[in-house]
Amino acid sequence: MLDNSRAKLAKKNVDMIVANNLKVQGAGFGGDTNVVTLITPEDTVELPLQSKEEVAGQLLDTILERMQA
User: Other C-beta atoms within 10 Å of 41: how many?
Assistant: First the structure.
């Protein structure tokens, strides 16, 4: 999953990819929780199982931090 996501990041020339780990229980599209990895050219941050609202908040925080840098 991570190698594919890093390749997609480079191919699409984007600043960040959010990889959704569907193999972890409690993650995916059908529930209220998720497990994702934020991938940038400089870093990879694996977020723990948490609510989708918490994932969204961390994603927004990361975007805002990158915009200020």
Answer: 11
- Cα 13 to Cα 16: distance, rounded to the nearest angstrom: 9
Of 52, 13, 15, the C-alpha closest to 32 is: 52
Distance CA 31, CA 67 (A): 31
Question: Hey, is 22 helix, strand or coil?
Answer: coil
pTM here is 0.84
Whole-angstrom Cα distance, residue 43 to residue 23? 22
Instruction: Please tell me the predicted confidence (pLDDT) of residue 44.
Output: 94
Measure the CA–CA gap between 58 and 28, rounded to whole angstroms. 17
- Which tens digits make up the pLDDT trace of 15-64? 999 998 888 887 777 789 999 999 999 999 999 999 999 999 999 999 99
The helix/strand/coil state of 53 is: helix
